[in-house]
Amino acid sequence: MEIQMGLFALFAFLGLVAVWLIFYFIPVGLWFSALVSGVHISLLQLILMRWRKVPPSIIVSSMIESTKAGLKLDPNELEAHYLAGGNVTNVVHALVSAQKANIMLDFKMATAIDLAGRDVFEAVQMSVNPKVINTPPVAAVAKDGIQLIAKARVTVRANIKQLVGGAGEETVLARVGEGIVSSIGSAASHKIVLENPDSISRVVLEKGLDAGTAFEILSIDIADIDVGKNIGAQLQMDQAQADKNIAQAKAEERRAMAVALEQENKAKAQDARAKVILAEAEVPLAMAEAFRNGNLGIMDYYKMKNIMADTSMRETIARPDKK
Questions:
Q1: pLDDT tens digit sequence for 222-246
Q2: CA count, 13 A, side-chain hemisphere, 139
Q3: Which of 97, 129, 136, 247 could serve as a FRET partner for 159 with CA atoms 20 to 30 Å apart?
Q4: Among 119, 202, 217, 137, CA closest to 172
Q5: How confident is the model over 139-163, as pLDDT tens digits?
Q6: Residue 204: exposed, middle, or buried by beta-carbon count in 10 A (0-12, 13-18, 19+)?
Q7: Contact yes or no for 60/46 (Cβ under 8 A)
Q8: What's the rounded mean pLDDT across residues 81-97?
């Protein structure tokens, strides 16, 4: 009796396992849900999804959603997109939202956007509800040298056709910042910009900054403008200091050249005095030679001595401070 009870329990357990396996690989519940929702999908196809490791619940729920929204999608395409690593549920949500908002978006474009790594459902929502991007503070200098620091709010709408391969928010912010700098830099005075901040918006919008991006710029609004430093005055001060340093360097160069010239002249004077001394040292020798040759007499010698004494006396009288 106990053996029979054990066998009955074993068979019951195996039966339950078999039923669970049957209902796992044969999702009858999903097939029935699809059937009553008007989705035509075979039970065999659901079984094959299990073998291909594709969750039938995702495909069936997506098919039901699209069918109720009036869209006709192929379950094979949904399955292929899942196997490619895409988000099937997000794509179907995006297609339904785009249809309700009268936005042109087909299944091929939606799957391409999804596989490109962008949130296609968020893009559709952004097409309906534009997004506001706040730019960081942008510093620029007007022609009068006054620095202005501006902050802007950029209202953008997703461009569905440019989501694949289009530039992102960073590019839009960089272009808007460049446009603000160009607009402020071309202003004759910072007061003009402060009086008409909307002029910046007009100039920036006319540049077509959203070209090649995944967004369409709807408006650019200047949120705040602050007056910064007087860059022009600072540059003039720096230039004046630089000119002063250059002038000092040139003056020092001229002084050094004058000192060098003075030293050169002193050296030349000393050389001349040395030559004079050497020449004076040769005078006695020449006089002795003249005595020997009879060219100079004793009276001539005394006469020359008298002239030298008279010259020395005159020099003493002319310069009494010289001892």
A1: 888 888 787 777 777 878 888 888 8
A2: 8
A3: 136
A4: 217
A5: 888 888 888 888 888 888 887 777 7
A6: buried
A7: yes
A8: 89
Q: Which residues pair with 154 in a beta bridge?
A: 133, 220
- Token readout for 226 is 């602050």
Token readout for 99 is 């249809």
Cα–Cα dist 302/311, whole Å = 14
- Tell me the two tokens of residue 100: 């309700």
Query: CA of 205: how far to CAs of 11, 157, 215, 224, 260, in Å?
Result: 77, 14, 13, 18, 66
Contact between residue 96 and residue 71 where contact means Cβ atoms under 8 Å apart: yes
